[in-house]
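This is your field. Have a critical look at the following sequence-structure pair:

***
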Amino acid sequence: MNDACQRYLQDPEGNAAHVRECAACRAVFETLGLEVDAKPLDVGDMPLAPWEGARHRPWALVAASAIAVLTLSILFFIYAGVSPLSVLSSEMSRLEMMREVFRLTSTAVRNAPLTWQVTIGVLFVVVNTVLVLLLRRAPRGIDA
């Protein structure tokens, strides 16, 4: 094999003329039962596989489900005798309380002893390192 044969094996589509010129490469491909003058396959002409999004999308079912959920929520509000705005205002006071808890927690962490802060930082790095290592690991298939 010479340099041109190596280039052809690395990039058959880019060096397609080589097979017509080199008898040794043509003989190898003919013994393997492959067509030498085969036209490269245009991937754009191929149909999509089901996992590539070629399936039917049930948008009508999604829209009908959303309308059904909206209708049920309106019916529940009417049955309960409350308005959605009163529910939102009561939830806002609860959210304010949760915001205050988060503010107090952050203040407590800032005022914690230095050893606790360092421990939290080290644990943060360790946990994230473990997660990155788990994500980089090769996934096992169903048959593994």
About this structure: The radius of gyration is 32 Å.
